[in-house]
Design a protein that fits this description.
Shape: globular
Structural class: alpha/beta
Number of helices: 15
Order of helices and strands: HHHHHHHHEHEEHEEEHEEEHEHEEEEHH
CATH topology of the largest domain: Nitrilase/N-carbamoyl-D-aminoacid amidohydrolase
Helix content: 40-55%
Radius of gyration: 24 Å
């Protein structure tokens, strides 16, 4: 790959940066053209190679990041247009800064992938706990390339995509680059093989027979405009198609299908208990309850056939500006006319580990948005969870962009933890995912349907489950330091 006349003009460079970002965006679900994640990043790195000055380097990185994330998170437009632009601009700035910093290091073929990976690490955690959406790892989630996540999670997988792109550019630009290219390529191959061969996770030979209930219904209905009873009735109707002869252990309902002041004294509790008794199965139901004035809880609750409530998990990772308004901002946003009335009360953050107990078996659970945080899912596995549950409610979102990306994300969570993973959604997609990330059953958006599956229990932990994200971050930062800052020269930007 050589610099052509197409890149000689500044405007052309910015246009191609936009094209590169959009190319990466189209690699993500629901489009899912995964090779574009590498090709798009490679085009971006080729453009940065011919940037003329620091301002342009930042601008090229910004345009690339904005195009990628604006397309990948376009579902936010229908929920909050101002929030959509704020998020896209903020995180695009991360990548502009990463490009500016990486250009100041020797060996940009290695420094750029590391710097942009660290930019992603930053947005995974900042601000408001992070927004790990439209990420590079979910682009490769349907492929064996994603097996690397069992070693280093989403951060290592992000670096893998970016480094592969940089190697592509380096190989075709300079013959003398081929030796370091070969070395890094060999490292990537070793990591892939290692991730597939070294697997300390194994089956316990036991199973749980689980029914995932999806009630169906329309998309794009905000929670504030939805009937508290409609979703419950749809899921109850589907549940009644199940029979005692199905020999179920567990019936899994999605997130916040039940919206009441107090679950234990509600009509919905008695109806759930009756169904639990009829099927002789435990029910795991998503419940939204009043906590106090202007506050509520979002929990998954286990109900026994005799009516006992034996286990509960309250959502820890809340959606900023979706389930709560960050402290100190509500009055300010009201003063400038922001529609905070759509968030009339704030969710109370849970404190407990991401765990439920079903049939004397510990299982990991992440509620909806929490699935995008690898560390949250891993916390449940660290505590002994033998499967991973992700009850969710995506009915507020128009289209299927977010739903498709969440399903791909749960495929990654399955690989990272070595656990069978179940996604239970109100309107779709509900699914069963193997520890290898393969989706074996799936219910479409809007369908009213039940999935019944015998889910193997697993024990042991993957390398990533033991290491977490900290080790990978330290290795990346150390590697960037070894690239050594240098004084800019004529060929400094060559890959």
């Amino acid at each position: 790959m050589t610099s052509s006349k197409l890149f000689e003009n500044k405007l052309n460079r910015l246009i191609f940066a936009l094209v590169a970002g959009l190319t990466v965006g189209f690699s993500l679900p629901p489009w899912g053209w995964w090779p574009l994640s590498i090709f798009g990043c490679a085009l971006f790195f080729q453009i940065t190679k011919v940037a003329r000055n620091a301002n342009e380097q930042f601008l090229i990185g910004f345009v690339f990041g904005f195009a990628w994330l604006a397309l990948g998170m376009s579902w936010m437009w229908f929920l909050t247009a101002p929030g959509y632009f704020v998020v896209a601009f903020l995180f695009a700035g991360f990548h502009g800064t990463a490009e500016l910093i990486s250009s100041r290091f020797n060996s940009p073929m290695f420094a750029r992938p590391i710097a942009h990976t660290l930019a992603e690490v930053l947005r995974f955690s900042f601000p408001f706990g992070g927004v790990p959406l439209a990420t590079l790892p979910i682009a490769i989630s349907p492929t064996q390339l994603a097996d690397i996540s069992a070693i280093g999670g989403p951060i290592l997988a992000t670096w893998f995509v970016l480094q592969s792109a940089a190697l592509m550019v380096g190989y075709f630009n300079r013959r003398q680059s081929r030796k370091p290219v070969a070395i890094i390529l060999l490292l990537l191959v070793i990591l892939q093989i290692f991730g597939q061969i070294v697997n300390p996770v194994h089956s316990t030979k036991e199973t749980l027979r689980i029914a995932i209930v999806q009630g169906g219904g329309p998309q794009g209905v905000l929670a504030i405009n939805a009937s508290a009873r409609d979703a419950f009735d749809r899921h109850l109707k589907v549940t009644k198609t199940l029979q005692s002869q199905d020999n179920l252990d567990v019936v899994l309902w999605p997130e916040n299908v039940i919206d009441v002041e107090d679950f234990a004294s509600s009509l919905e509790y008695f109806e759930i208990t009756n169904e639990s008794k009829r099927l002789n199965a435990q029910f795991v139901v998503g419940v939204t309850e009043d906590a106090d004035t202007n506050r509520f809880t979002n929990a998954q609750i286990v109900v026994q056939p005799n009516g006992d409530i034996t286990s509960r998990y309250d959502k820890v990772r809340r959606v900023p500006f979706g389930e709560y308004v960050p402290p100190g901002l509500r009055s300010f946003l009201e003063s400038i006319g922001a529609p905070v009335n759509q968030i009339p009360s704030d969710a109370v953050a849970g404190q407990e580990p991401a765990m439920l107990t079903l049939k004397q078996t510990d299982v990991a659970v992440v509620i909806s948005w929490e699935a995008f945080f690898a560390g949250r899912a891993n916390s449940g596995v660290e505590s002994g969870g033998s499967i991973l549950l992700n009850p969710t409610n995506g009915s507020s979102y128009t289209g299927t962009i977010l739903q498709s990306q969440q399903l791909a994300t749960n495929s990654l969570r399955a690989r990272e933890t070595g656990r069978w993973t179940l996604q239970a959604a109100t309107t779709g997609f509900s699914a069963v995912i193997t520890p290898q990330g393969k989706i074996t059953q799936r219910v479409g958006v809007g369908e009213a349907k039940v999935i019944v599956a015998d889910i193997p229990l697993t024990t042991g932990r993957t390398i990533y489950s033991h290491l977490g994200d900290g080790v990978i971050i330290i290795l990346l930062m150390t590697s960037l330091i070894f690239c050594r800052p240098v004084r800019r020269t004529k060929n400094q930007n060559d890959l």
